[in-house]
Amino acid sequence: MLSVYQVYLLPGNSVYCGSTISPSQIPLYTKCILRLKVILIFYSLQGRTLILKDIKSHESLSLVCITQLERRMADAGNKESAPIGGDEFTNTELENNKNNTMVEEGSTLLRRMEISVAEAEKRTGKNTVNMQEIFTVYLIETRPIDAITEGHNPAPDSLWRRYSEFEILRNYLLVTYPFIVVPPLPEKRAEFVWHKLSADNMDPDFVERRRVGLENFLLRVASHSVLSNDKILYHFLTEEHRWKEVVYETGFQAKADSRIKALSATFRVKNPDKRFTEMKHYSDELQSLTSQLLRVRARVADRLYGVYKVHGNYGRVFSEWSALEKEMGDGLQSAGHHMDAYAASVDDMLEEEEHYADQLKEYLFYAEALRAVCRKHELTQYELETASSDLISKKQQREELATGMVRTFSFKGMTNKLFGQETPEQREAKLSLLEEQIVQGEETVTEKTVECEEYVKGAWVDMQRFKEQKDRDLREALIGYAVMQISMCKKGIQVWTNAKECFHKM
Amino acid sequence: MSRTIDAVVSPTQTNTIPADISGQMLDLDEDDDLEVFSKDLTLADGNMFNASMPTSPGSMVNQCKFEEDEESDSKDIFITVDNPESHVTAIETFITYRVLTKTTRSEFDNSEYEVRRRYQDFLWLKGKLEDAHSTLIVHPLPEKFVVKGMVERFNGDFIETRRKALHKFLNRIADHPILSCSEDFKVFLSAQAWELTTYKKQGPGFLSRMGETVRAVANSVRGVKNRPEEFTAIQEYVEDFSNKIGSLDKVTQRIVKEQKEYLEELKEYGPTYTLWSGSEEELAEQLKGVAGCIERCCKETEEQVGHLSDTLVPVLHEYVLCAETLKAVLRRRDNIQAEFEAKNEALATKKVDRDAESSDLGFVWGSLLGKNPEEARHQRQERLDGEIEELKEEIDKLEDRVEWANNALKGDWGRWQRSMRGDLKSAFLSTAEKNVDYYEKYFIFIHTQITVSL
């Protein structure tokens, strides 16, 4: 019987599975795998070995190495027995999994190298205006996969990076691969906070969530078929000190500045690719819809927090009251404890929900990246159109000059009529200049046409990839959210059933 | 086994409320059931008033809720309060409630009575019962007009809450072995409106009631000197209980408030998913699925808040009022004892007086009036003796009174504690059950959603 296991990663590198629901559809089973991946990515990849245990019997279901797991999922037709669920994992499911994983086709960095953002630390230093500041640095650890599979357990290479360096890396990628929907970084400042969450960037919970987000960013980039091959990315992961020089040497900064200008410029494109226009429209909607959702969710979380916490007062008053009563005393006292437990349970629940919010936030920021890709298309198309219309007007001018016929009104034509025509020599000079310009113009148009076509091709492929990834990830997130709600219900049922027992004893 | 009726009648509308009497604002302090209707009347929303009760005893028994109670006397009197109606006269507007009584008790001439009473009448009954049995615990009446709840006063919820409380009030009295035998109670249940008015006019007049009040104040100022230990213990308990129940009342109201605010946000939350589903293809179904879950959560939360407001909040509030009643009862008991002590002191003083040597002053007066000292002293002795005898008689009566008061209170105290436990236990139980139900229903819904659309 197929079951979906809800998986929790616990300290000590063990994972507990509890069976939640048992649908009979295979896709749901693969959801489990995805959920596993998502949880791992969000919580950490610190445990290299994953032990899956049945939550009731505590039997070990299997031992599996995470990287092996990823590779298996990516390989097609792999005949080795599956890591999760034992015999239930068949080849067809592996095939399905292959389509469903985050690991991309082609050779990607993630296949060769294990990457994680393991820790965060505070540092002090001087900033650009020579003032003391406190900032957080994150430890990036890498290990070659070959070494692990061979049975060695080498210590990882590591280096420290701060958030601003990640920003530089991302800006470089944006500029270098404008046709790719580049994965976003976790938010710079805490947004969509509700009262219990801190808006302070130094808050440990915020730092922890940011660490997870940065790791997620690296994993996404390192598993992208195009981005993962970038040398600068490799340097970012392996060279602590020289990296900044290297990246600035590429001259991306200048391109980054002009890119920003281009993104906000207004111009009219006559024939944009309809698909891109639709995508751009979609990206705008995605942005506004997710941000509205996140805003309201934060308010709901705030209110729910309030409801639970007020019940803590019951705990206190019941306890005090129980001291007054003889017969009701015991019942009241224990009911009070359950009320305290109820009030305390909301903290964990809402923390888990923050991870869900982070998953949505990622796609809020992704929407921006998607929009940028569409805009870049419009820009290249516009340049092409401008070049084309320039060429046409130059050709027209040549024709007029050659035949003496004035098709359209021109200042030159008027002055000619008024002040007399130019000399034949002058006309020759103009004609040859025009010819040169036309040749150049034709080259430009050809170039731009190719550029445009290639861009459209590459961008369309990546946008499709992005769409599939988005559908998978968000579906996963939504299911996770429903599962969270179920968990909340179970806890609620338990607490109030216990409280009921206590009231009976009153 | 004693039973309490909770007659819940499905409400239907009775069209007796005039739409606009805003010109007849009267001083609300004087008459508490004057209902002043403004143009923004929200009363006419179909669900406010109760329909007529089915009147066969059989159907009434079906509506009894059987409580596990230690009292062994079988119930022979059934009372319901329902059908609020508003009455308009030239001078005022007020609400009356129908009081339906069915009984087999011999002191009643008929077995069934149907009368209409207003809040004022209930107040009168309470006052009479407290006067006659000052140390018995009379269940509290719902409060008078609460200034804070200005808006609520004019809507159906307020009237319904009050009706329920009045119903409970009468039934508690009916359950009480002593109070239910009161003549005032009998008249309240059986007399027609004009008969009641006449009856009310009898009894101790204004002046004698004033005199009693003055005495009570004097006694309370004097204070009681030798309160028996057990009553001190009861008083301490009542103080603490009053604090605790007041806190619980506040906490519960706060929970209701927070739940309502949560509900408001939830109502906005679900639609954000629905809106998003409009822009998606693959994800549309899942998004709508989540929206559906949130909508269901809204529905369940609304029900739960309603249940809390209907079940737990009124009971806690009732016991807040009970605590005040208890404090008053203890005070009255103290006053009775204080009066007794005061008379005892007076007696002691008189005795000292009598046994003392005649003072020179008395001797002098006596001689001035032409009496000889012997005679004067003798007369004085006789007079004092007489007064002492009178005092002794009064003291005997007061002693009886104190003993009776103490016993009554002790007996009622046990009763009250039992019903308090019963009431609060069942209210909290019901709340816990509803909460379990809330989570269970929502759980099942999400469960099916996951397998269907997610």
Tell me about this structure:
The complex is a heterodimer of chains A (506) and B (454). The longest helix of chain A is centred in the C-terminal third of the chain and has 81 residues, at 424-504. Chain A is an alpha+beta fold and 506 residues long. Chain A is built from 14 helices and 7 strands. In chain A, strands 1-2-3-4 form a 4-stranded mixed sheet. Chain A has a 3-stranded antiparallel sheet with strand order 5-6-7. Chain A has helices at residues 26-43, 66-74, 91-100, 109-112, 145-149, 163-176, 204-222, 231-238, 243-249, 252-264, 274-322, 329-403, 411-419, 424-504; strands spanning 5-10, 14-19, 49-54, 60-65, 113-126, 132-144, 157-162. Chain B is mainly alpha-helical and 454 residues long. Chain B has 11 helices and 5 strands, in the order E-H-E-E-E-E-H-H-H-H-H-H-H-H-H-H. In chain B, strands 3-4-5 form a 3-stranded antiparallel sheet. Chain B has a two-stranded antiparallel ribbon with strand order 1-2. In chain B, helix 7 crosses helix 9. Chain B is elongated, with a radius of gyration of 30 Å. Mean pLDDT of chain B is 78; it is low at 1-72. Classes of the chains: A alpha+beta (506), B mainly alpha (454). Chains A and B meet through helix 11 and helix 14 of A and helix 8, helix 9 and helix 11 of B. Chain B: Belongs to the sorting nexin family. Chain B: One of its GO terms (molecular function) is phosphatidylinositol binding. Chain B: InterPro entries: AH/BAR_dom_sf, PX_dom, PX_dom_sf, Vps5_C. Chain B: Residues 381-408 form a coiled coil. Chain B: This is PX domain-containing protein. Chain A: This is PX domain-containing protein.
